[in-house]
Write a structure and sequence with these properties.
single chain, mainly alpha, Butyryl-CoA Dehydrogenase, subunit A, domain 3, 3-stranded antiparallel beta sheet, 5 helices, 72% helix, 10% strand, elongated
């Protein structure tokens, strides 16, 4: 249960952290686009609703679903940021980088999905 809550919390932290950094300036997942808010929503789905129904068999599925949504969003955005940096040439590659928030949100989303699978298959959720 702690694994689910920690993963969901780290997803939310990553959503508000920097997703791209250029010349000391950064943009979080909640700046400009709604993708960071999708990750926050996935964290609430995976962690928040899990807490409400954790005694039921359905709770592990909520954690898995939240993790998969977060993973899809962050993986897609990470690929887009990486492609944009590469397309910008050597100058962009020297100045821009993927931020720690996007990496954290991606890893925490994967972790939440795995935690949901573990919860679902554990004897205590039966």
């Amino acid at each position: 249960m702690t694994w689910v809550f920690a993963s969901a919390g780290l997803m939310a932290i990553g959503a508000f952290g920097p997703w791209v950094k250029v010349l000391g300036q950064s943009a979080s997942g909640t700046d400009g686009s709604n993708d960071g808010w999708l990750v926050v929503g996935a964290a609430l789905l995976g962690g928040g609703l899990f807490a409400l129904v954790r005694g039921s068999r359905f709770s592990g599925i909520l954690a898995l679903l939240g993790g998969l949504i977060g993973t899809a969003v962050t993986f897609y955005d990470r690929q887009n940021v990486h492609s944009a940096i590469l397309d910008g040439g050597a100058f962009a590659q020297a100045l821009a980088q993927i931020g720690w928030g996007l990496n954290l949100a991606l890893l925490a989303s994967i972790s939440l999905a795995i935690a949901g699978i573990v919860w679902q298959t554990s004897p205590r959720s039966a």
